[in-house]
Amino acid sequence: MIRSMDTLKRSVAILQKRQENISANVANTNTYGYKAQQILQTTLKAQPMHNYLKGSKLDQRNEIGNFVFGNEIDGTYRNFEQGALNSTERSTDFAIEGNGFFNVELANGQTAYTRNGNFKLNELNELVTQDGYPVLNQAGQRIQKNEVPDFQITSFRNTNPLVSMGSTLFTSTETGENDTNSIVKQGCLEASTVDMTDEMVNLIQTGREFESNQKAIQAADETLKKTVNEIGKV
């Protein structure tokens, strides 16, 4: 029964992560350029179990069979599909039609990538993100107010190396490619790829799994209590 409590504890921890992920997606439903994320989980490899209750003296090895000790988080998946383009008619708003990403300069000089073109001008009249990170042009320089934006657009054949650092910013462990196929549209913003219907279904399913695990924990607790208080007295 102690082992079952460990298995249930692992299951509840995964459900908590799933619920946190759903909350993050729902909170960013209206965040421009946000890409919905899903938690991936797999079943742990079955492990052989045995005891020594075989034979007339109950002292011989007895093979019970394989037992699966629950699930584990196997990673995350980002929906990098194109979001809907919404017109804003603001001169500092831009959207990418295609697979590319805007390049922005982080405080440490590292390049980050985003699909969120909800930009603004800072006190130096530089085009920056809402967090203040400068947007870069084809020459790798900061874009000025009076400059016709010639954005550096980078695409990735494989998005797996992209590491999230906030709602819409990503860094990459691999170098992307200069994207000449994507089209930048001014006065538009890309909508989030969160599907509220899917998130509500996921939330209901997660809630029901929480309830099932709670009942299983209560049953295991009652069995342990009975074992300690009654069978332990014999």
Task: Explain what this protein looks like in three dimensions.
This protein is an alpha+beta fold. It has 2 domains: 2-79 and 194-233, no CATH class; 85-190, no CATH class. It contains 2 helices and 16 strands. It has helices spanning 2-27, 196-229; strands at residues 37-43, 47-54, 60-67, 71-78, 85-87, 94-97, 101-105, 111-114, 120-121, 127-128, 153-155, 162-164, 169-172, 177-178, 183-186, 188-190. It has a 6-stranded antiparallel beta sheet with strand order 12-13-8-7-11-14, with no helix packed on it. Strands 1-4 form a two-stranded antiparallel sheet. A two-stranded antiparallel ribbon has the order 2-3. The model has no long low-confidence stretch (mean pLDDT 90).
- Count of helical regions: 2
Series of H and E elements: HEEEEEEEEEEEEEEEEH
Largest sheet: 6 strands, antiparallel
Number of strands: 16
Average predicted local confidence, pLDDT? 90
Distance between the termini: 19 Å
- The proportion of residues forming helix, as a percent range, comes to 25-40%
Report the principal-axis shape: elongated
**Spatial strand arrangement across the major sheet:** 12-13-8-7-11-14
Helix/strand/pairing category = alpha+beta
Poorly predicted runs: none
Number of domains: 2
What's the alpha carbon Rg, rounded to whole Å? Answer: 26 Å
Give the strand content.
Answer: 25-35%
